[in-house]
Design brief:
10 helices, binds iron/sulfur cluster, six-stranded mixed beta sheet, disordered N terminus, 236 residues, 6 strands, alpha/beta, Uracil-DNA Glycosylase, subunit E
Length: 236
């Protein structure tokens, strides 16, 4: 199959596709993959996370596709009110196909549980890029852009009220903030009818174990309480 045949799959205008968010785009063949990063993924391309996962596992919109064992799409409640976005898969995630596994994932579950939140009920977890960057480097802007259509589709399908941005890459790519995480963590950013909050990445907390007032763990405790309070407010 030629690149042209695959690219032609997305010859629908974003406006036309957006008018029917879950309808199959005109000319869409579910067996084809949007190969070129220059061709946007129209809103409404996917009607299930499973279909999107199948595409991501065959995707080569950026070079990261050459390195993956498994694309890492996400885990948690597919209709969660909170979406947590990290940077990209690490080695364990690449092997298991699940995000935030290992020690970071265990700590994240503990942080959520401290305010009675769970990935089973309240949170869906995903990443900016779905394939592991070599040596766990930060994804490039081109890689993040190539993958952004998938994340946008996830946001549309999960439709969360709150989006938590763990770390600088998620902040930069979802809300355009380039400041350091320590400066903006804990602040609400209202955009497109959703509430975004930058928070520390659990891996950062593992490297900074201090529980002193004003330290990373103490600040995370403030932030997760604010998230729970916002969720309760939105649900009331
Ligand atoms: S990181 Fe995203 S865009 Fe790049 S190959 Fe993987 S799924 Fe495709």
């Amino acid at each position: 199959m030629s690149n042209e045949e695959q690219i032609s799959l997305f010859d629908v205008t974003p406006t036309a596709a957006a008018s029917s968010p879950v309808a199959t785009p005109v000319g869409f063949d579910p067996d084809l993959i949007p190969t070129s990063a220059k061709v946007p993924i129209p809103t409404g391309t996917y009607d299930s996370m499973a279909k999107m996962a199948e595409h991501c596992n065959r995707c080569h919109r950026c070079d990261l596709g050459a390195y993956r064992t498994n694309a890492v799409i996400g885990r948690g409640n597919l209709k969660a009110p909170i979406l947590l976005v990290g940077e990209g898969p690490g080695q364990t995630e690449d092997e298991t196909g699940l995000p935030f596994t290992g020690k970071s994932g265990q700590l994240l579950e503990k942080i959520l549980a401290s305010v009675n939140l769970t990935t089973e009920n309240d949170v869906f977890i995903s990443n900016i890029v779905k394939c592991r960057p070599p040596e766990n480097r930060v994804p490039t802007t081109d890689e993040a852009n190539a993958c952004s259509g998938y994340l946008k589709e996830q946001i549309r399908m999960v439709d969360p009220k709150i989006i938590l941005l763990t770390g600088a890459t998620a902040m930069k790519n979802l809300v355009g903030i380039k400041q350091g995480i320590t400066k903006v963590r804990g602040q609400w950013i209202e955009q497109d009818g959703r509430f975004y909050m930058p928070i520390f990445h659990p891996a950062y907390l593992l490297r900074n174990q201090s529980r002193d007032k004003g330290g990373p763990k103490w600040l995370m405790w403030q932030d997760i309480q604010a998230v729970k309070a916002k969720l309760d407010e939105l649900r009331s």
